[in-house]
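Can you give me the bound-state structure? Components:
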Amino acid sequence: MPEDHLPSANPLSLGAAFREDDRRLEDLLRHVIDQLEAGHNDQARVLWRECEEGLIRHLQAEEAFLLPDLLTAKPREARALLEEHRHLRQRLAELTTGLHRAVRPDRVQAFVAELRAHASHEEKTLYLWAETAVERSQQEAAIARLGGQSTGASARS
Ligand SMILES: [Fe+2]
Ligand SMILES: [Fe+2]
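Here's the bound-state model for the whole set.
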């Protein structure tokens, strides 16, 4: 796909938006850990819920708007990222169950490390590539999905 259709006045690049979202999710997880360490399990659950919803939106945004093109262009890399998403969803579900009872903060800390590894993998294989290879309307739809907004653009699958 040509690069020259990208507008020069780019409000927020795809990479910047997804990086910022990763930072926001990591901050939330740190607050979850703080609350667990303080024994404030109810607050931890509220923050966890926010983090869970945000992370699911993040994964869905990539899967709906970015990964289909990567699957065509670089199938091996796309499949590796999708496998990491599957793993992260499984870990999310385990921790959600754990949070309903009692979960040790170090388990949430381990999840922070897994998320960070995934984000750094995507930094190398997805975000920068997508900025030039994915149509701008799809990029904007992906960014909008992070914030929970709905746009007219529909997902390709
Ligand atoms: Fe991802
Ligand atoms: Fe991501």
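A couple of observations. The pocket of fe (ii) ion (ligand 2) is lined by residues 18, 58, 62, 119, 122 (CB under 6 Å). Residues 152-157 have pLDDT under 50 and may be disordered.
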